[in-house]
User: Which sequence fits this backbone?
């Protein structure tokens, strides 16, 4: 049917400290405090679950370059955790959309670069056939989609860390929103794997 809108769920996946940080005081690469919580059985299973329904991954430039340097080899690494291999195989095959104004070449197959606003990219992707669209760890992209009302689900690994300084996920964007907790999984490290769905106003209802 022409003109049909495809209902593709847009998921933002991020790790947060208790004080709402995505990086520590050492700068954008200060994320070592996340690692013990990302390597638990529960966190690995959580990541596998949210990626298993997706066919598109949306990434910022830095995360794309970091992912491309790590994940492709994991797919065939017999020593890797089976869940990590499954995520790696998914990443290798998924459509990878990189949001960047500076990146010009992408070597990872099924990748393309778009310099548009993340919200506009998502609006176009929603109209295409496919599974869920997941933003993996790219906080600036997630923040932009939150502020534009284009994020449907938040997947948060809440780490029991107070890092004291660093980049925050939540900024000072437009009016706030309400979210419904749909799943919570405690991890062995003390982290919580949380899934929230956006509560959208009923059609024709008051905002």
Assistant:
């Amino acid at each position: 049917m022409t003109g049909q809108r495809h209902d593709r769920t847009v998921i933002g996946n991020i790790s947060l400290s208790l004080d709402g940080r995505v990086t520590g005081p050492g700068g954008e690469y200060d994320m070592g405090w996340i690692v013990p919580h990302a390597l638990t059985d529960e966190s690995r299973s959580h990541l596998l679950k949210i990626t298993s329904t997706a066919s598109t991954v949306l990434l910022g430039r830095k995360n794309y370059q970091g992912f491309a340097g790590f994940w492709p080899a994991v797919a065939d690494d017999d020593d890797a955790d089976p869940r990590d291999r499954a995520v790696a195989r998914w990443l290798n095959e998924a459509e990878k959309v990189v949001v960047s104004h500076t990146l010009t070449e992408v070597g990872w197959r099924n990748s393309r670069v778009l310099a548009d606003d993340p919200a506009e990219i998502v609006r176009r992707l929603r109209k295409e056939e496919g599974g869920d669209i997941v933003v993996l760890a790219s906080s600036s992209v997630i923040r932009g989609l939150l502020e534009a009302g284009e994020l449907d689900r938040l997947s948060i690994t809440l780490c029991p860390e107070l890092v004291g300084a660093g980049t925050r996920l939540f900024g000072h964007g437009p009016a706030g929103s309400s979210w419904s907790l749909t799943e919570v999984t405690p991890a062995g490290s003390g982290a919580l794997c949380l899934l929230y769905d956006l509560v959208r106003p009923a059609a024709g209802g008051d905002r």
Remarks:
- Strands lie at 10-17, 54-60, 95-99, 111-114, 132-136, 153-159, 179-186, 192-198.
- The chain has seven helices and eight strands.
- Residues 129 and 143 are 25 Å apart (CA to CA).
